[in-house]
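Input sequence (113 aa), recorded before submission:
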Amino acid sequence: MEENEQPKSQLEAFQELATQAPENVMVRYSLGLEYLKARRNTEAEGEFRAVLHLKPDYSAAYRELGKVLTALERFAEAKGIYEKGLDVACQKGDLQTKREIEVFLNRIAKGGD
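Predicted structure, token format:
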């Protein structure tokens, strides 16, 4: 690192990794999480959709995409994504993600957060 160079943020580091390895599911998922933290929901949505394109049975990506869509107030779309994620989580035996998705689905059914 150069003397005046700032250390990379997590977001910048994952952006760089995603450029180098666009097919790496974990890198793309992590980049989506960083965008979500930064409230860059449109970019986060793109990353989580890319993850699901690469690995359609990644239940945690459905959970995170549902969060993004909820933040974007696209509730019907979020509900559909959560329901698909719930199916995937049940098929894989991913009980923690299943429980979390059920909580988010209940919030949408009650009209938001």
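Checked by second reader. The first helix runs from residue 10 to 20.
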